Each structure stands twice: as structure tokens, then as C-alpha cells.
Amino acid sequence: MNSCALSVIAPAKLNLFLHITGRRDDGYHELETLFTFLDHGDELHFQPRQDSRLELAPMNGVANEDNLIFRAGELLRQAYQQRGLEVCGVNIDIDKRLPMGGGVGGGSSDAATTLLALNSLWGNKLSLDELAELGIQLGADVPVFIGGSSALARGVGEQLQAVDVPQHWYLVVHPQVHISTAAVFGHPDLPRDSAPLPQQWQHAEHRNDCEALVKKLYSEVEKTLQWLLKYAPSRMTGTGACCFAAFDSERAALDVLEKLPTEWQGFVAKSLNQSPAHTALGLN
Ligand SMILES: C[C@](O)(CO)[C@H](O)COP(=O)(O)OP(=O)(O)OC[C@H]1O[C@@H](n2ccc(N)nc2=O)[C@H](O)[C@@H]1O
Ligand SMILES: Nc1ncnc2c1ncn2[C@@H]1O[C@H](COP(=O)(O)OP(=O)(O)OP(=O)(O)O)[C@@H](O)[C@H]1O
């Protein structure tokens, strides 16, 4: 193993609330959403090469050229080249653990971890703000993973205010349906007129404005939430399909996981106010 090799977690995120306050002319939605990270995620391995190639091990379900990991790597390489900086090639491998299209931000987190890790391997020539500017080209959720702190996000998700949120143990359940973010945001019945948060937003009602529509379109999501709500306060994350329930202890969350109907998948994880990717790369 090369001594410069890196293994870095790409953590899941939860949207503790997600309010839609408007729609821009380009179709993107104005959001107010509270992000936190989980100590559970994909694991990416970066191994420098002798040549200048970026090689990504194949991942089930996504062609390599469409993979956000590969696209993030290419984007960063171009940014380095535009500055006249030479970079080494890298082999990238992934242990994919997060459900795809699950609302826990797996693709965005993979992209952000790739930007952070390659930047580190290539000498940290770009600032976190510059990485976030590259990241927003790949997805609205990438900047929060670059910022690395729990945050209240506005705009389409790129205007970030770091905040500490109370930590819990979460049971995250994936009802095994794949939901397209674009289809939910494009649906005519999606409510888009939530009032902006008050100054004291911590005490405002917390809800996910996509939840009612997604429950109507996907009965498995409705069933999942009904089941979780028997045990703890529960909500959907992002545009679904994952739903999460908050517990005060790992034991309490694991007790409910043990009762999970076999047709669904779930995991228990602790929330983190700092991304484990930042901790691994010494960016905190
Ligand atoms: C719903 C959230 O997960 C909340 O964290 C994100 O806002 C979605 O972030 P993401 O998956 O990185 O989204 P992108 O890949 O940028 O966009 C997917 C699609 O969702 C829609 N989209 C996304 C974000 C946003 N603020 N408004 C939108 O309307 C757009 O139609 C876009 O084509
Ligand atoms: N490395 C990757 N991991 C997961 N999905 C990827 C990746 N690269 C590209 N994709 C594509 O992105 C789509 C959305 O994936 P992702 O798992 O990020 O959804 P999500 O958790 O719903 O995201 P969000 O909460 O940000 O909307 C996938 O269906 C897949 O086609």
C-alpha cells in the first residue's frame, strides 16, 4: 500500500426539516433545510498512481462516466490544470453502503469526499470555498458536505450557516423504493409556499414539505412512517425514500431495528455536528 493512500468516509446526511419557500426561474427550488451528518456512510479509498489517470472501480447501478465520484475527480483535475498545477493519477475504490436515491445524500457525499481527498493528495491548493463552488455544479447537496458542519441551508442548499444541533441516535429505514429527486421537485402537487423561518427558527415547526406528496405517491413510505411513529418522533429525509426516528440511546434505537419488518432495510447511527470526512483529513 502506498504511504500516501487515503481511506475516507462519505457520511450520510439527514434533513432534520425541509421547507420549500419558492421556485426559481430555472426550476430549482428555494429551500430552508437543517442538515446534520451521521457516523455511517460509504467508504472511499484513494491510491496514487504513477501515471496521470483517474481510475474508478465499477459501482453497481451507475456507469463510471456518470458516477459523481468520477465527475468530481475530473472537475478538480481541470481546476488544478487551469491553475497550471500538475497532479498525479489516482485509483479510487468504494465500499457502497448508503442506499441510492434514498435521500441520505450518498452520491453528493461521495462527490464531496472525492473533492476533499484529492485536494489533500494534490497539496490542498484549493480552499474549501473553491471546492464548494465546484461541488454545486455536481449537486445542490454537495456544498454542505464540503463545509463539514451541521448547517441551516438556504437558497438551493448552498447558502450555509453552520449550527450545532442536539445529537441523537437515529434509526434510518429504507423502504426499498427508489425515488427520483427531480420527479418529486417537478410534481405539480408539491407545496412550494412555506413561510420563511422566523429569527428563532429552532422553535419553529419542523416538517418535510415533500413528505405528504411522497407518502401519497409511494405507499411503502407511508407505511414506514406509520410504523416508526409507534416508537419515536419520525420524519422523511430529503425527497425520500429513507425515514428516520430519533432516540436518546443506541440501545433504544437497536431495539426497534430488531423489530424491523424484513422487507425494509435499516441501520442505526449517531448524528455528528462535524463530518467524519473532515475529521479524517484533519480539516476541523
Ligand atoms: C432534496 C435535497 O436532498 C435536500 O437536501 C436536495 O435539495 C437535493 O440535492 P441533490 O440530490 O444534490 O439535487 P441535484 O442533483 O442538484 O438536483 C436533482 C434535481 O432536483 C431538483 N432540485 C434540487 C434541489 C433544489 N433545491 N431544487 C430542485 O428543484 C432539480 O429538478 C434537479 O434536477
Ligand atoms: N457515487 C454515487 N453514489 C450514488 N448515486 C450516484 C453516484 N453517482 C451518481 N449517482 C446517481 O445519483 C442518483 C441519486 O443518488 P443519491 O444516492 O445521492 O440519492 P439521494 O440520497 O436521494 O440524494 P439526495 O438526498 O441528495 O437527493 C443515483 O440514482 C445515481 O443514478
Automatic annotation (TrEMBL):
Catalytic activity, EC: 2.7.1.148
Q: Which residues form a coiled coil?
A: none
Q: Which GO terms describe its molecular function?
A: 4-(cytidine 5'-diphospho)-2-C-methyl-D-erythritol kinase activity; ATP binding
Which GO BP annotation is one of this protein's? Answer: isopentenyl diphosphate biosynthetic process, methylerythritol 4-phosphate pathway
Reaction it catalyzes: 4-CDP-2-C-methyl-D-erythritol + ATP = 4-CDP-2-C-methyl-D-erythritol 2-phosphate + ADP + H(+)
Summarize where ATP binds, as residue positions. Answer: 99-109
- Lineage: superkingdom: Bacteria
Q: What class of enzyme is it?
A: transferase
- State the Pfam families in the record: GHMP_kinases_C (PF08544), GHMP_kinases_N (PF00288)
Q: Could you tell me which residue ranges the GHMP kinase C-terminal domain spans?
A: 200-264
Q: Which InterPro entries match?
A: GHMP_kinase_C_dom, GHMP_kinase_C_sf, GHMP_kinase_N_dom, IspE, Ribosomal_Su5_D2-typ_SF, Ribsml_uS5_D2-typ_fold_subgr
Instruction: Cite the GHMP kinase N-terminal domain residue spans from the record.
Output: 67-148
Q: Which UniProt keywords apply?
A: ATP-binding, Isoprene biosynthesis, Kinase, Nucleotide-binding, Transferase
Q: In which pathway does it act?
A: Isoprenoid biosynthesis; isopentenyl diphosphate biosynthesis via DXP pathway; isopentenyl diphosphate from 1-deoxy-D-xylulose 5-phosphate: step 3/6
Does the keyword section mention ATP-binding?
yes
Active-site feature positions: 13, 141
Matching NCBIfam families, A to Z? ispE (TIGR00154), PRK14608.1 (NF011202)
Q: Which family does it belong to?
A: Belongs to the GHMP kinase family. IspE subfamily.
What is the role of the protein in this entry?
A: Catalyzes the phosphorylation of the position 2 hydroxy group of 4-diphosphocytidyl-2C-methyl-D-erythritol.
Q: What is this protein called?
A: 4-diphosphocytidyl-2-C-methyl-D-erythritol kinase
Q: Which organism's genome codes for this protein?
A: Pseudoalteromonas ruthenica
